[in-house]
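Standup notes, structure subgroup. Blocker cleared on the adenosine-2'-5'-diphosphate input:
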Amino acid sequence: MKTYTLRSNAQVPALGLGTWKAAKGEVYKAIRDAIKIGYRHIDCAAVYGNEEEIGQAFADAFEAGDVKREDLWITSKLWNTQHKKENVIPALKKTLADLQLDYLDLYLIHWPIAMVPNPSMPFTAESFVSLEEIPIAETWEQMEEAHRQGLAKHIGVSNFSVKKLKDLLSYAKVKPFFNQVESHPLLQQKELLAFCKSEDIVMTAYSPLGSKDRPNIKENEPDMMSNEAVVSTAKEVGATPAQVLLAWAVNRGTTVIPKSVNPERLKQNLEAAAIDLSSAQMEIIGKLDLHHRFIDGTFWAVKDGPYTLANLWDE
Ligand code: A2P
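Run returned:
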């Protein structure tokens, strides 16, 4: 497995397993299977609602001798309702308890969005708290405290624009190690990737396959796996279209976290990290950018609320 060496000298495997949408009742087996076939990087989040089951899988994998804790890279994320300073460390401790771990390799601020503790569904303006009221700086200070206490060996953010990263870098005592964002050939985020690289921040690509199993999928969404350039590249290298999407992500220097709960696809995805694409193949896929977001953030942009798509993505 290709790895990236971080500022801390730690190494992160380029391809990890995503667990968003991995349902209770199936995620345990997916984690056990994944570890057995060689996955060493697992991406979790409190809001996915499955950390307890994942924690049991970790505990059983350690117990069975499938892997040692120090050989796994485990990420989790702080949910929007926990941004206030007194909530950050308790939220992280809850995640650690659920995952049956005493430290995370990486803890991320999940979104640059703050919410009240128990927002009603569907969200209204009252569900949200502005970043003037709970600034990212307040949350970040506690992320740094979690890092200082060794609860999270690395800290970072998710869904941050260049503008928000620059703002964070202006006061951070511990620079973020990662920015996890949606990225794939239709949303390449070239400027963001270049900025992250220049600041020694690793960009992690989520929804690399288009997250077709998510709720509220729109009609007529583009399908990357049947894209002509992707399909022809797949034929050239003797791989599947999904593997080409993942290989492309690794070849351009991002970490990538495809989700699967299917043993065959888990294996296929893991193997994709070893596929080298030629510069000509990278270039052809590089031309597919449409700046198309599958996860467009509209769920945060409610009427009269503090968040809009413009102030979320800064574009
Ligand atoms: P499954 O879990 O049944 O394998 P993303 O990582 O972009 O969120 O996409 C996840 C979706 O893609 C899930 O529906 C997952 O289904 C599916 N998927 C994962 N790996 C592959 C693959 N190699 N080929 C086709 N579909 C895949």
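Discussed briefly. The radius of gyration is 19 Å.
Next: hand off to the docking folks.
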